[in-house]
Amino acid sequence: MEGRRNPFIAPEGLPFLLITGGAFLVALRYLDVGIAVAIALLFFVLILLFRDPRRSVPSAPLGVVSPADGQVIGIDLVDRGVLQGEAHQVLIRIDAFGTYTARAPIEGKVLDLRSFEGNGVADYATNALWIQTDEGDDVVLQFRGYRLGLAPRSFIRYGERVGQGQRCAYLRLTRYAEIHLPIESKILVELGQVVRGGSDLIGKVPHP
Fold it and tell me: What sign has the CA pseudo-torsion 161, 64, 1, 14?
């Protein structure tokens, strides 16, 4: 399932590109050519940084897709993970020049972690994304390691339904994505594996 919009560049990056493009034209006309070339290189880097290409979401109703481009650097069991206790944890080191937007790992309803009174919720960041499938399986996505102090910015609301692989947040140079899956889930990735956000499966939840 794709979001309502499919721009190649994330909207959050457009102001930076417009300013840089304008600066390039000014430098080319009134300043040194070397300065114009440096600004052009910056413009190219910004395109790589803010790019948001369309992704082909796999036809796997029970599948959990990677939320971002990157490399799997951790696969563990945690005892205070997915709200109800023990859970699988997959840790992905995000590629800074991968897609700028995070993708919802699974289809379901977005719930508010603050409404849960269990023992595991305190371990999650305030901006963690809790998605519950129609079958009652819980998947939690959270980010950590913010560059320049910029936390990801979500553009979905509590109570909203999201599709598997749907755009759900701006990553903003975040270093790591952490996905918690139910303990009965099957993990489909290995350490060191490179994954693409919204298209590569990292796991499969248990319920048919």
Answer: positive
Secondary structure (3-state) at 170: strand
Q: What is the dihedral of CA 2, 6, 11, 17, to 10 degrees?
A: 140
Summarize pLDDT for 150-194 with one digit per residue, the tens: 778 888 888 889 888 888 888 888 899 999 999 889 999 999 999
According to CATH, what is the number of the domain 63-204? 2.70.70.10
Are 114 and 141 in contact by the 8 Å Cβ rule? The answer is no
Calculate the alpha carbon distances from 181 to 93, 112, 130, 138 in Å.
18, 17, 11, 7
Determine the Cα–Cα distance for residues 47 and 52; give it in Å rounded to an integer: 9
Q: At what angle do helices 14-30 and 33-50 cross, to 10 degrees?
A: 170
Q: What are phi and psi of 108, to 5 degrees?
A: 165, -165
Choose among 116, 98, 64: nearest CA to 176.
98
Contact of 114 with 130, CB cutoff 8 Å: no
- CA dist 38 and 33 (Å) reads 9
pLDDT at 113: 66
Domain ranges within the chain, ordered by starting residue: 11-50, 63-204
